[in-house]
Amino acid sequence: MSYAQDQSIIWQNTIGGSDSDNLWSISETFDGGYIIGGWSGSNISDDKSENSLGGPDYWVVKLDALGYIQWENTIGGSSSDYLYMASQTFDGGYILGGTSYSNISGDKTEDSNGSSDYWILKLDEFGVIQWQNTIGGDDYDQLWDITQTSDGGYIIGGYSISDISGDKTENSNGGIDYWIVKLNTSGNIEWQNTIGGNDSDIFKSLAETTDGGYIIGGTSKSNISGDKSENSIGEDDYWIIKLDPLGIIEWENTIGGFNSDNLWSISQTSDGGYILGGESDSDISGDKTENSNGFDDYWVVKLYPSGAIEWQNTIGGNLIDRLFSISETSDGGFSLGGFSASGISGDKTENNNGSLDYWYLKIDAFGNIEWQNTIGGDGSDILTSTSQINDGGYILGGYSRSNASGDKTENSIGNWDYWVLKISFTLGVTDNIAAIPFDILPNPVKNDLLIDTKGQIIEELYIYSSKGNLVIQITEAGISPTIDVLQLSSGLYFIRFVVQGKTITKRFVKY
Predict the structure, then answer these.
(1) Strand partners, 285
(2) Concatenated DSSP letters of 74-133
(3) If residue 481 lies in a helix (H) or strand (E), which one and from where to where?
(4) Sign of the Cα pseudo-torsion (398, 403, 406, 407, in order)
């Protein structure tokens, strides 16, 4: 008997206009659909119903559960506006965060404070703007992440070159600093903190923690100086900081090898620790325990609640592999997403379809690879956002310039397009051929499942959900051939039982 872990594309949609459209954010909504966001340079064409207002604009698209567009909105000013994060809020609306170079024009109601600013917008459930705020100093400020907090407000993070000016209340520590801003429910600033050393510190990701504080992360070149308590290990390092609810630093950790290590994603895990994901081209050195497989590799690091390293894994092939997204899954493992230029080599088990492909992996709670999939067409495909969704599958979003080829079923619409895929993970089963044709009945079943073993004794019994999670296990002697499955939720299951040393696996449906 063998288990084949199969990841099947349930549906996909290429979404765009006649120019470049780059997706950076996708998440599931309360109705089982999805909100996707990025930026677009396209005028009215194909999926775009509005002309560009300036340079690239925020472009937010609401999909239903099958990936069809329900509504979309082009939001911007007369210059360039780049959307990096879109998610649903507690009231069923949406929060958008990105960077704007525009003055008052189009949808923008405030002038730029400097070269570029954080630009936050709150939309209602239909995508109509409810409020907005332009936040920045007199120089360059770029937002990378925003999330609603448990008090109904918002925590936003990015990096800043600005000194005290505009909305900024602290001078820069060095070249570039983390800049964290807490907003209330109306989008007004409650507090802020400029965090950095004497060199470049580039923020990328944050999350609220269970104690009401925040975990933030990015990449640092700084030595001991300003807020940094450790010297740089290599060219660039992961720099992780734990803040209390008022934005005060509780602890920080510089993590890296002797070369370049760039963090893209961080979040708290169910055990109170933290999961970090990014890219590394460092060999064994500093905190790194494995050599690079090629150029850049995915580098996943699990921290204890204290911030100390629990485990790590360097994952990649012989060329460039860059991780943008990591999140915990329902079984305590993690979903990883990014892009790969590597063929079969190192940890990669499939060749590329084109020059760059989506590469997503599932690892267990200890960082071991459980399965992976290389998805793409004949051009370049860059996966920027992925997560597990409520039905146990996965939603993948990024941008593609491939035509119909490989895994792609639609031609490119413009230069780059949004490319969204729904992936199902199922536990495929191949049965051993047993001398006696054992059976299970009834199938489908509501209450009691009978295993017809032709009078033979069941030695072990396991039932798995369609996601591969073990839900029932019986290993003691004298197992009854009648199994109560009433407590299981409706869906597809796999039952594995051992009779006369033979392992038999069957499928059944619980209704």
Answers:
(1) 288
(2) EE--SS-EEEEEEEE-TTS-EEEEEEE---SBTTB-S--SSSBEEEEEEE-TTS-EEEEE
(3) none
(4) positive
Locate the domains of the chain by residue range.
22-40+47-375, 432-510
pLDDT for 452-510, tens place per residue? 888 888 988 989 876 566 789 898 878 999 999 998 987 778 788 888 777 777 878 88
Beta strands at 249-255 and 309-315: parallel, antiparallel or unpaired: unpaired
Q: State the Cα–Cα distance between residues 489 and 433, nearest whole angstrom.
A: 30
Which amino acid does the sequence have at 54? G
Q: How far is CA 298 from the centre of its chain?
A: 14
Average pLDDT of every residue of the chain: 92
Calculate the alpha carbon distances from 454 to 82, 396, 431, 440, 472 in Å: 66, 46, 18, 11, 23
Strand, helix or coil at 410? coil
Phi-psi region of 228 (alpha: psi -120 to 50; beta: other; left: phi over 0): beta
Cα separation of 76 and 58, whole Å? 6
> Cα 250 to chain center, whole Å?
26
Structural fold of domain 432-510 = Immunoglobulin-like (2.60.40)
CATH 2.130.10.10 fits 22-40+47-375, yes or no: yes
Q: Does the pTM exceed 0.90?
A: no
Please report the DSSP string for 338-365 in residue order: EEE---SBTTB-S--SSSBEEEEEEE-T
pLDDT, tens digit (0-9, with 9 covering 90-100), for 392-436: 899 999 999 999 999 999 999 989 999 999 998 654 433 333 445
User: Quick one: average pLDDT of 11-32?
Assistant: 96
